[in-house]
Write a structure and sequence with these properties.
It is built from 21 helices and nine strands. The protein is of the alpha/beta class. A nine-stranded mixed β-sheet has the order 1-4-3-2-5-8-7-9-6, with helices on both faces.
Length: 509
């Protein structure tokens, strides 16, 4: 009940640990809305430092915020926002547009009712989501892409589910023109597992809205992934709570309506898909070819059955569905294999470069198909040469590996170790600190933060990190042993002995 006192305490904490992302976030949350979003240190700026925020005078204070994700301010963006303005109740609307374009012009009819964040730099989908999380205030946060529309009742149905106790609510995805065969088939291939009548065993839990309390527990969306950032995040959510399936919450997707559009769209998606598991983990091209053959067969079978169920198809229409499905599926898998072959070749080249100690651009970096393994191999190749000369390249490679592996402590360990070895303790601690902000429930990241704090001589941060580890793992004897060592080094033998005794009690006999 003392917001001014809370703000003063948070400011004092930030003075003590100015490099702590956790301290900055605490201070930002003590500021009143809308000052919180306009502040020079507003949380959303860490994802879009070049961004500009404008807020209309009639932005709703609502029970749910909807973050509209936009790239390049396409004309379709206005339709997405209009579908939200037509909801009852109207939500708090935050539009995040990156990659240029004139979003203010596209949205001129709605500017009084929205909070708009624009940045000229292209953001990944995870970073754009994170901007919206930090630039909104409602207790529930949902997302809508610019090429989608919220069906009538979308907001009210979500609020009913959350009001009944759900922390995470997944929604259905339906075609915007189901009478168009290309539109229907595209929806079937991409999202039939999200149709309202999808069978339980195949159901895809996406299009999720989250309570802000759950977001605080699970952290932020991974920023380095081009696709599947929600898959990674929802895996974290599923470890903590059940994701409710709400088929009455329906999102309309603007799918292609022509044969060339369908083929081109599936080819683009297949090419991007190659850089992500399970395709990116194939050992060689023969392995990739065999795996994709099985995968596409299963995928198209389910899509064809779903499309048949969705339409009163006579013999001619069924034949057309079969032909179009074969064409679009072949386009997708051909592009996937082409990209996969390039990725395998790049991975092999990186391994050869690492063995040879090459430090220059001796191999195809496959930038559009980057994986954490490729960047780690590149960093190791550069470190085998003149690490001093190539320090900037090594840092970049290791940071990209961290960004592309949002739940893997190995790249973070390598990055922090390299920075500490090169005499950059503050930078190493900041990297570990940010990883803990991104994924506060991952114990491995907190152990790395503790190691960085200890090696940098940040005793208060080391102790705070150990206390956090104790809260996460009160029955782990390793945490008690680490605290015992800390207290012993700090000249507190009584506390050291107490923690050591706890560790002994928790060790199996």
């Amino acid at each position: 009940g003392d917001p001014a006192g809370a703000a003063d305490a948070a400011a004092a904490a930030l003075d003590r640990v100015p490099d702590s992302a956790l301290a900055r976030r605490t201070r930002a949350r003590c500021l009143p809305v809308p000052e919180r979003f306009r502040h020079a240190d507003a949380d959303w700026r860490r994802w879009a430092p070049e961004g500009r925020l404008t807020e209309g005078p009639r932005v709703r204070t609502a029970g749910i915020a909807v973050v509209v994700l936009s790239l390049g301010a396409p004309g379709e963006l206005a339709g997405a926002v209009a579908s939200l303005m037509a909801q009852d109740p109207v939500p708090e609307i935050v539009v995040v547009n990156s990659g240029g374009g004139d979003a203010a012009r596209v949205l001129r009819a709605h500017l009084d009712h929205i909070r708009l964040v624009c940045t000229p730099r292209r953001l990944g989908p995870g970073a754009a989501r994170n901007v919206g999380i930090d630039a909104s205030a409602a207790p529930v946060v949902s997302f809508l892409a610019s090429d989608c529309r919220a069906a009538p009742g979308w907001v009210a149905a979500r609020l009913r589910r959350h009001g009944a106790g759900a922390a995470a609510v997944a929604s259905a995805m339906i075609p915007d023109a189901p009478g168009n065969i290309c539109n229907l088939l595209s929806s079937a291939q991409l999202h039939w597992t999200r149709w309202p009548d999808a069978p339980v065993e195949a159901r895809g839990l996406y299009g999720v809205s989250y309570t802000r309390a759950l977001l605080d527990l699970c952290g932020y969306f991974p920023t380095g992934l081009r696709v599947a950032e929600d898959t990674h995040y929802n895996a974290v959510v599923a470890d903590r709570t059940r994701i409710d399936w709400a088929p009455e919450v329906q999102t309309l997707h603007l799918y292609p309506r022509t044969v060339p559009g369908l083929i081109a769209d599936m080819a683009r998606r297949g090419y991007r898909r190659a850089a992500h598991p399970p395709f990116s983990t194939r050992a060689d091209y023969d392995d990739l070819r065999d795996f994709t053959e099985r995968w596409i067969r299963n995928k198209t079978h389910g899509a064809y059955l779903a499309a048949q169920r969705a339409t009163d198809a006579g013999p001619v229409r069924r034949k057309a569905l079969q032909i179009l499905l074969r064409l679009s599926a072949r386009a997708e898998v051909t592009a996937l294999r082409l990209a996969g072959r390039r990725l395998i070749r790049a991975r092999t080249g990186q391994a050869a470069a690492a063995r040879a100690g090459l430090s220059e651009d001796a191999v195809d970096p496959a930038a559009a198909l980057e994986t954490p393994e490729l960047h780690l191999a590149r960093a190791e190749a550069l470190m085998a040469g003149d690490a001093g000369r190539d320090e900037a390249r090594i840092r970049y490679a290791l940071r990209r590996a961290v960004a592309l592996a949002p739940r893997d402590p190995v790249p973070l360990t390598k990055l922090c170790g390299f920075l500490l070895d090169r005499g950059h303790p503050a930078e190493a601690f900041a990297a570990a600190d940010m990883a803990c902000v991104m994924a506060p429930g991952l114990t491995g990241f907190w152990w790395i933060r503790q190691d960085c704090a200890a090696r940098a001589g940040y005793r208060e941060e080391e102790y705070a990190t150990l206390q956090h580890l104790l809260a996460l793992n009160p029955a782990d004897p390793a945490v008690h042993e680490a605290l015992a060592g800390f207290h012993a080094r700090s000249g507190n033998p009584e506390r050291a002995a107490l923690r050591a005794s706890h560790a002994a009690e928790l060790r199996p006999a």
